[in-house]
Structures are given as structure tokens and as C-alpha cells.
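I hope you will forgive my troubling you with a question about protein structure. Could you please explain, in whatever detail you think fit, how the C-alpha cells follow from the sequence? Thank you for your consideration; the sequence and its C-alpha cells are set out here.
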Amino acid sequence: MSGFFARSQMAQQLAAQHRQMERQIHADLATQMREPRREAYIAFAAEVGRQLDALWWAHHALSARPPEREAAAEQLRVFGPSDSTAYEGVLLEGPEEVAHAASVLSAAVHRARCAALVWFEWDESVAPAETSPPAEPRDLAAELTQAHDVAQKARRDFRLLAMDAIRADGAHAEGEQAHARTAAIHQALGRPGWGR
């Protein structure tokens, strides 16, 4: 009987070690998955922040009398190519609600940029004589301000969802690590660990 109990105890120890290894692997995988996601969120938020700052300074330059056209053009160059690797990173990392918020934010920034370009080009063209002026002149400054405000709200929504996603990843990883530590303590004390 002593041999049977010894084999049974050894089997329990091996099973506990196996569970501990599984939990540690899960915790490590969760950490590895969390870091690229966090980096993608940070890169996209930083890129959008630079763009919104540039739009605000372009607004300031175009509002000057006379308009500071060179300063506005310099700010609008911040955008560069239309494709964004930071945006693609968020879409790849997910989750779906964060990717959707990123797409809404990207579209809002694009609309704000278009409003700035319309204002820039409108000031630059000295309104040809044959072109009849509109019945009600457009308030291009107000259009850019409104588009900028919408983009700022979309940015806040994205950041809140991104922080929630990162916290959820962190809670999962910490939970797995806590399970692994508890199993290691039970094994060291020779006690049966919790099942999984």
C-alpha cells in the first residue's frame, strides 16, 4: 500500500507542476500579447495628437491678419502621406471596439484636415472676378473649429476604450500570474493545489 500511496503522491505532484507550467505559459503569453497592443495604441494616439496640434496652429496662422500662410502650410505638412502604419497597428491589435474608435477618430481628423485645406486654398485664391460670391459667406474658421472639436472628442473616446482594453489585458495577465504563484506555494508546502 505504501508504494501505491507514494505513486499517487508523485502523480499529484506531477499534475500540480503541469498546472503551474500551464498557468505560467498563459501568463507569459498574455504579457507578450499586451505589449504590442499597448505600443500600437500609444503610437496612434501620439500621431493623432501631433496632427490635431498642427491643425490648431494652422487655425491660428490663418486667423492672423494678414494670414500667416507659410506658417499654416508648414503645419499642414505634418500629415505627410495618407497611409498610417500606426493606424494599421491598432486595427491589427484590436479589439473590435477600439479599432472602430480608431477608425472614427481617423475619419474625424481627415475631415478637420480637409476643412483646414479648404480655408488655406480659399485664402490663397483671390476669388476670380467672374466667380459670383455665395449668398452667405462661409465661416471657414468656424468650420475648422467645429471639425477640430469633433476630432478631439473622438480622440477622448479612443483613449478611454484603449485604456479599458489595456487594463483588461493586465488583469488577465496578473490573474494568471497569481494562479501560478499560488500553485508554486502549495507545491512547496506539499499541499494539493487548486484545480483549473
User: Anything to note?
Assistant: The two ends are 29 Å apart (CA to CA). Residues 192-196 have pLDDT under 50 and may be disordered. The helical segments are 2-63, 69-76, 85-93, 96-124, 140-188. The chain has one domain: 16-125+138-188.
